[in-house]
Design a protein that fits this description.
By secondary structure, the chain is an alpha/beta fold. The protein is about 35% helix and about 15% strand. It has a domain of about 190 residues: Rossmann fold (3-Layer(aba) Sandwich). The longest helix has 18 residues. Bound molecules: NADP nicotinamide-adenine-dinucleotide phosphate (NAP).
Length: about 325
Amino acid sequence: MKPKEILVFGASGFIGRNLIRRLTKNNYKVIAVTRNIHQKGYILKTESNPGYLDIVEIKSFEPNKIRELMRGCNVCVNLIGILYEKKNGQFNKFHRLLPDLISKIASESDINQLVHISSLGIENAKDSIYASSKLNGEEAIKTNFERYVILKPSICYGSSDKFTTKFMSLLSLLPFMPLYYKGKTKFAPIHVSDFVEIIFQVIQKDLNNLTIECVGPEIMSFEKMLKTILKSIDKKRLLFPLPYQLAKLSAKLFQLMPEPLLTEDQLKLLRYDNILSGKYKTNFELGFKSEKKFENEINKYSYNWRVGGQFSNKKEVV
Ligand SMILES: NC(=O)c1ccc[n+]([C@@H]2O[C@H](COP(=O)([O-])OP(=O)(O)OC[C@H]3O[C@@H](n4cnc5c(N)ncnc54)[C@H](OP(=O)(O)O)[C@@H]3O)[C@@H](O)[C@H]2O)c1
């Protein structure tokens, strides 16, 4: 039987790279779409065996280009997402308009299944532009193409993420760390290999017309996650609750950085728990177990930030 051909938008990202490995190892052929083949090509190429991966560069998402890419593909996975806007309107462009366009074109093409990655915990966060743009994207897909699966993960972590590794670096450098909303916001972190396994199973089982909330086995407050990271990198730091007005001011300053540590919109989103809403099916209900525990998993790469590690500013004296 001819292997399925899978078109992946946002393939060079954290989840995308892990997904390509899982798919190509299992004989799926992947077409990875990137905006910059020179910058991202080498990262993508190392994720698969020769012959299983084609890399295509597109500079803009013109309908005809998307139509052409979809020709002959069975599945389309959309992983494109941004955490902050470089220009006003980018959340709307990438989280609503692009999924709208992709799903409209999918409905007229050979695509048999569209897997779209949205986010958990966005339903109540009406004041966050990120959250409302992601929700609008979900709605557009549901309207345009019934053979969709929308996956809504909580924080997804792993050795090449931008979350745990960023905090490992920050907590190594800084003597203290502020806690927004007293650090009480809850998360259900899911390891990237568990999340990618869910995407893989969704494709293999050819599911459709489904929205699935994807969580790991534990619920942890933000404070608990930071404390677990501190223990893992063997550091002691002061964690203190930052009053909201000061948090807002710090976000205003941080968002001026080229890669903001925190934006005002992210601060708004952080107020809402990032756990199962009860509105959708969950990965557990569908038999997709995610068993990896946060502390066990981060211990496998946090040694890089401990004394003597690659990213430690203190080297062991030999
Ligand atoms: N990681 C998490 O914890 C998490 C949690 C919840 C939801 N999600 C969602 O899951 C999806 C994938 O997450 P990820 O962590 O893998 O993201 P990521 O590492 O930031 O990668 C996102 C991909 O999107 C593409 N992209 C970024 N900015 C773009 C832009 N301005 N125009 C066009 N393409 C752009 C990039 O592709 P190129 O540079 O190759 O073009 C990149 O590979 C996103 O939709 C995200 O919102 C992630």
